Amino acid sequence: MAIAIDFGTSNTVVARWNPATSQPETLKLPGLSAISAQNPPLIPSLLYVEDAAQSKVILGQQVRDKGLDLSGDSRFFRNFKRGIGTSVQGFVPEIDGQIVDFERVGEWYLSQITRSIRELPLQVDSLIFTVPVDSFEAYRNWLGKVSQSLEVEQVRMLDEPTAAALGYGLADRENLLVIDFGGGTLDLSLVRLDNSAGKKPLGFILKWGEKLLAESSGQKPKIARVLAKAGQNLGGSDIDNWLVDYFVKTKGLVKSAIATRLAERLKIQLSLLDRATEVYFDDENFETYELELERAEFESILAEHQFFENLDECMNRVLQQARRQGLEIGDIDAVLLVGGTVQIPAVGRWVEQYFDREKIKCDRPFEAIAQGALQLSQGVEIKDFLYHSYGIRYWNRRENCHSWHSLIKSGQSYPMTEPVELVLGASVENQPSIELIIGELGAETGGTEIYFDGDRLIAKQLAGQTPAQPLNDKDGARSIAQLTPPGYPGSDRIKILFRVDEQRFLRITVEDLLANATLLEDKPVVQLS
Asked: What mean pLDDT is predicted for residues 197-223?
């Protein structure tokens, strides 16, 4: 049986494929899932460390039931998904003599969830994780390593927006725009579904393990093609922080875990009401917190933080990519809204500025991703392209600093049928080897800096920079060719072929032009183990 896990910044959804009904269904994990009349079973993405040395943790709804999310204790973690695979600036806690980074917290969280799944009377042989479209390879690396410790035959990954397109089940539509707006990220993905092959236009994007059942049985799989996508680190947790800052400025509120929780509750109320009020009595300090906010004030706070300008920027990037492929905005058949942040009325009105109301679907904001990912177990294929570029680092003499030269551009489909070629020569006399720093490049619009503000984890957009994550900048990995005989300036010496395979791994082949020998052949630079 296949299980899908949509690990979100604020909430996590677990779903299974029910063979009896041939339909997906969301699972409720005892003690971990929140019970709500308005929402499906959601697992709050919260974790509290009881004993780091023994890996003893409390997570999900249990954290809230015990009031551990209001303590301000360094053992409590929220929004930790945002820090996984990133370079966090500042404080990283030491608990029980152990350095506890976000990768470790995330591993504890997912491992405990999978153990809870195994306690259910289900036979689990396949896991499907969903990932943000804007995630660097470091996050996928981490998820791959975590997956190796899970006792399942097969683990696969699927981009969250594509999973959402599948989860809404609009089999009669062709071009779908998915707006996935959760607690930590905004992801837009334009997906074309191929309706010519049969009943269910579904898609496969990433996998480990054996070939798909549809492939092995000789059936021709249905195809979903990703036409355009854009994303950035912006979500509901940022809005919570903005609200806290507003009350700190206007009401003298002290930044704390309690303040963040109250801000989140106000935000949720304002999705339904024009005015929201929250009161909390701190029985330790004998202080009462009473916060009130009107929807108009709330929307002014969003505007002050360029919230809608950021949304417009992402939308324009997707529409520009679509136009390069001959698609206009009127060719988009449906717009699918997923994630808790899409429930903010101002977000709905923003979408309606671009699309007719009858095209917009928002009835499955929490379950569409996890349940759509389950379609991978039903014989699926997807044609996708690279969101990031790959390049090499060089010394920019004009700027007197290191810069990056893009070799494989964002938008390149994979697996690549033709490699990219680069020819290099020696730069000094009697050069024994050639070193090359290869990196995964972010969007041209800027990067994200992750840092602490008190006990809050903040993601700040950096304008005017092209962020990059070096893939081989460590001892023993930079050298790509030993030169025998040594190299001399003035002539071409090695030829490098770059390609990306079907699992998005960058591979290189290195040929020594003088010795007429292959030094490296199709070696992966990024190895997901």
From this structure: 36
